[in-house]
Amino acid sequence: MLNDEIFLSRAFTLALRGRFTTSPNPNVGCVVILNNKIVGEGYHLRIGEDHAEVIALGSAGSNACGSTVYVTLEPCNHYGRTPPCTIALLKAGVSEVVISTLDPNPYVKGNGITYLSKVGIKVRHGLMLSTGEKINKGFFKRMRTGFPWVKLKLAMTLDGRTAMKNGVSQWITSDLSRQDVQILRAESDAVLSSAVTVLTDNALLNVRWTALPEKIRNIYNFKHFRQPIKVIIDTANRITPSCKIIQGSRKVWLARLCKDNYTWPSCVEQLILPSVYYNGIKRLNLFALMKQLAYREINNLLVEAGASLSGALLSAGLVDELVIYQTPKLLGADARPLCILPKIQHLSEAMSFRLLNVRQIGPDLCLQLRPIKKDNFL
After folding, report:
1. What's the whole-number mean pLDDT along residues 226-246?
2. Would you call 133 a catalytic residue per the annotation?
3. Cα 253 → chain centroid
4. From 5, 41, 53, 349, active-site residue
5. Is 88 within 8 Å of 71 (Cβ atoms)?
6. Which of the given ranges, 78-87, 288-297, 349-358, has the highest pLDDT on average?
7. What angle do CA 55, 60, 62 make, to 5 degrees?
8. Does residue 201 or residue 36 have the better pLDDT?
9. Which candidate, 218, 198, 222, places its Cα nearest to that of 309?
């Protein structure tokens, strides 16, 4: 069991190297073991390219024959953009395959282990399940629920304020905290904001590759660099082709209630979604938006928005994780609040969170939290 954990831990480490590039595929790592030594290893880099098992087997060469293969996710058994990994394992002559998690895709789950067992390869699975799911929480959630993993990023002062009364917020947190946000964006398939926030902050929502830490740039080569898709809720059709966020963007999705008559560059698509009435106000249906994003293979969604949208997502129970950067400053009662939530009558109605992690980043704190009601997933 100790060796199982050692070798699977190495496979998890490899899998995480692909977290900036693999989506919509999951992160997968693989190691090949012969005589209790690693003779080959690999991880999945991008959709359409070799899977982790194929790379690891190629690295092992003839040493793959008679080996034990450790892989973080069930090997595929179907022809997609690449041939089945199960056949590659069979042809390599491996003796045993040890798997952390089964593929959550209901059309795939169990097919890989069934095939391997039928052809005489010993199979074990269900090891280090918690770790196996956490490295692919967006993929697992999308496959199980049809919704992406939603991470809400907020920045606040000690008294829970996000900006001056006039909306000025640049910058309440430190340069180091803003650099950390670059990592959150790079790990995300899409970044969600509102037209109000984008126009007020003149936001681009880009990842600056040069702002990423060197240790990340070493595994995230610039030739594989990608920008997250920008999703902007724009019910009043305020965003126009001349807006700064449109210029030079790879892909922008405008979530709207109706289309406009502008001529848009090819990078822009208008997503027309249904509306709901909230306190007598017509708003975009956030549940429909999340379903649409998952349908478009968004696993991990980062939200960078103001108090209104942040509060609406929290109130709807759509947020899976909060990342809050807290700066040691005070702005006072007239400054803007962290989020706008429905009024509560009793303390028992307060929204509760579980604190997962606290880090100090320069002068700031970074808090990672999860709404307690979401703990039924991970």
Report:
1. 94
2. no
3. 17
4. 53
5. no
6. 288-297
7. 125
8. 36
9. 198
Q: What is the DSSP string of 300-350?
A: EEEE---HHHHHHHHHTT---EEEEEEES----TTSEES------SSGGGS
Cis ω for the linkage preceding 171 (within 30 of 0): yes
Enter the tokens of residue 214.
């060197």
Distance separating alpha carbons of residues 87 and 76, to the nearest angstrom: 9
User: Which among 183, 186, 142, 146 has a CA at the least distance from the CA of 22?
Assistant: 186
Q: What amino acid is encoded at 151 in this protein?
A: K
Q: Which residue in the block uniquely carries the two structure tokens 């848009």? A: 264
pLDDT in tens, 277-329: 876 788 999 999 999 999 999 999 999 999 999 999 999 999 999 999 999 99
Contact indicator for 191, 205 with CB cutoff of 8 Å:
yes
Rounded to whole angstroms, the Cα distance separating 115 from 199 reads: 54
Does residue 11 or residue 250 have the better pLDDT? Answer: 11
24 cis-preceded (ω within 30 degrees of 0): yes
Chain-centre distance for alpha carbon 125? 25
Structure tokens at 155: 């920045």
Of the pLDDT bands very low, low, confident and very high (cuts 50, 70, 90), residue 375 is very low
